[in-house]
Amino acid sequence: MTFKAKMDDKKISVDLDLTTIKDVLQYCKPKEQLVLFKKFGLSGNKEIPLQKIGNDYGLTRERVRQIESQGLMKFRRLIVGNERYIKLIKEATKLLKSNGGILSEDNLISKLINKGNLDFRSEEIKLVLVSDFDLYYLKRNKILKKSFYLDPIFEDLLEKISKYCVEYFEKKGDSEDVYNFVDILKKHFENKYGNIEYIQNNVFYINLFKLIKGISVFDGKIGLDSFISVNPKTIKQKIEYILEKENNPLHYQDISSKIIDWFNKPVKVNTVHNELVKNSNIFVNMGLGIYGLSKWGYKGGTVKEIIERILLTSNRQMTIKEITKEVLKEKMISPNTIILTLQKHQDIFHRVGKGMYQIKK
User: Could you give phi then psi for residue 136, rounded to 5 degrees?
Assistant: First the structure.
């Protein structure tokens, strides 16, 4: 470990090729080291919030924040000008620019690690990025998740766009094509913020959507987390989504396979089948293990019940061919089963001619 300096941290220049970030932090005051180690999880533990650190050491959250700020300032002075540090910042800046100027904390750090040539752990990357003047760190708040962004984007604008998104979908009550919604946002904000570089960049909005609490993007649509179309959570919701997506009745085994393909999560065929049976008011059994949605007009029931409903609705005599055609829209069965049902229930179905039936009055 070599430091080309005196002990005055304003003059210290650290060679990161021969030292670790932990070595650099030895030149911070003990309380600054302690706060930075705990706040950024540099010892291999989880990050500890400032409030918790303060509680553990009898300090206010504000005092801990001040110590953190002082430690970051000193850390910044210690590493500024070093090649590894500059390379990391350049890579981060390049990634942010190519992604619309904003990325979630996890996404940016993951992309940097995947570069494979920076030789920093995720905790160390975050410390370096947060300490830099040219990158802006957005801490988690009530509206947005943790992220890094570039000037000239500013936090107030991010919050305004985020609030607009949530309020828009609360009012609409349904999801929207994601790029249609991007166009809506551009038109709404371009007059006031048209001078901001990223305000017309589609990628900026796509990455921002991932940060907004209460908003989900899925399969080309955007909406509130509560919308099944963008955030199907339960097995029932996933089944409903698959059927809506396919817009056609499906066998329960096919539904199971498509859930695995679409959501990349294992699911048992029996679990799917049980959910279909349990929610018969939503999923209609059409026979042969095939299910459709009741909202499509399928009512389900036994073959006798379906024939009876068809004849009552038509309020006329119908041929066996006509009856069969209508029944097969609701239940996948053999046409012979329909004939046998008509013959078996002569107390309900009255034969009025060759191959003609009506409901007995």
Answer: -110, 130
| Span 31-59, pLDDT tens digits | 999 999 999 999 888 999 999 999 999 99
- Name the residue ranges covered by the structural domains of the chain: 21-79, 83-148, 154-224, 235-287, 303-359
11: pLDDT strictly greater than 80: no
3-state SS record for the chain? CCECCCCCCCCCCECCCCCCHHHHHCCCCHHHHHHHHHHHCCCCCCCCCHHHHHHHHCCCHHHHHHHHHHHHHHHHHHHCCCHHHHHHHHHHHHHHHHCCCEEEHHHHHHHHHHHCCCCCCHHHHHHHHHHCCCCEEECCCCCECCEEECCCCCHHHHHHHHHHHHHHHHHHCCCEEHHHHHHHHHHHHHHHHCCCHHHHCHHHHHHHHCCECCEEEECCEEEECCCCCCCCCCHHHHHHHHHHHHCCCEEHHHHHHHHHHHHCCCCCHHHHHHHHHHCCCCEEECCCCEEEEHHHCCCCCCHHHHHHHHHHHHCCCEEHHHHHHHHHHHCCCCHHHHHHHHHHCCCCEEEEECCEEEECC
Phi, psi of 352 (to 5 degrees): -110, 5
- The pLDDT of residue 18 is 60
The predicted pLDDT at position 333 comes to 86
CATH 1.10.10.10 fits 21-79, yes or no: yes
| CA angle, 319 then 325 then 307, to 5° | 70
pTM of the model: 0.75
- Domain 303-359 of CATH type 1.10.10.10: yes
Options 3.10.20.310, 1.10.443.10, 3.60.10.10, 1.10.10.10; CATH for 154-224 is 1.10.10.10
Residue 2, pLDDT score: 38
CB-based contact 54:61 (threshold 8 Å): yes
